[in-house]
């Protein structure tokens, strides 16, 4: 039986998490590749979205070149973007990846990839809430039956919190340190979560209370943050096993399904 896309099974498939501080790539069973999202003083990404496509393309080019089959056949790429990314911001991400040497690009919401990468059953008929706190954006999503039902995001994250944290030796208590210096960022994040929860129907809200909130992203590693969010919301917060890698690992897991459906060619 002939396929409409004869090179589909020959191309390498690459999952990308283009983050504010770090770009992560995953292909097949290979170990993750990580690279800073800037070149010298040139920042390629801010607030979770591409601001300089040329810089991002330059960073990605050697990564994608290493996945070319026989050194010739370009890879297809599944990338992730914040749920509130505008069409223009998604286009810049798409353009940067194509300039870097991809044959095609598909973009999915970061919270969906984060949920899959954290190992939760996104196909469940019961609502599950994900809060992904990245370097420059915090993304909330409600997932049910493999679909994102609703989302909300704010362009602040652990990058702004890190400026108020003490040196590493003082981070061992498991408590959120120097809360006063972190308060503006914490208020933005808790305000986002409060508004998100208030907009849910009573039935959906009960499902979230029962299932808890899944916390992913680099912000999940800040000592005491999960406990603080739990105390503030009154809902149990579960931290993903490897929160920094949840998005890219989720995209890697989703890739075979996307390819099978011929959505990425």
UniProtKB/TrEMBL annotation:
<keyword id="KW-0963">Cytoplasm</keyword>
<dbReference type="InterPro" id="IPR056546">
    <property type="entry name" value="MreB_MamK-like"/>
</dbReference>
<dbReference type="GO" id="GO:0000902">
    <property type="term" value="P:cell morphogenesis"/>
</dbReference>
<keyword id="KW-0133">Cell shape</keyword>
<dbReference type="GO" id="GO:0005737">
    <property type="term" value="C:cytoplasm"/>
</dbReference>
<keyword id="KW-0547">Nucleotide-binding</keyword>
<dbReference type="Pfam" id="PF06723">
    <property type="entry name" value="MreB_Mbl"/>
</dbReference>
<keyword id="KW-0067">ATP-binding</keyword>
<dbReference type="GO" id="GO:0005524">
    <property type="term" value="F:ATP binding"/>
</dbReference>
<dbReference type="InterPro" id="IPR043129">
    <property type="entry name" value="ATPase_NBD"/>
</dbReference>
<comment type="similarity">
    <text>Belongs to the FtsA/MreB family.</text>
</comment>
<dbReference type="GO" id="GO:0008360">
    <property type="term" value="P:regulation of cell shape"/>
</dbReference>
<dbReference type="InterPro" id="IPR004753">
    <property type="entry name" value="MreB"/>
</dbReference>
<protein>
    <submittedName>
        <fullName>Actin-like ATPase i</fullName>
    </submittedName>
</protein>
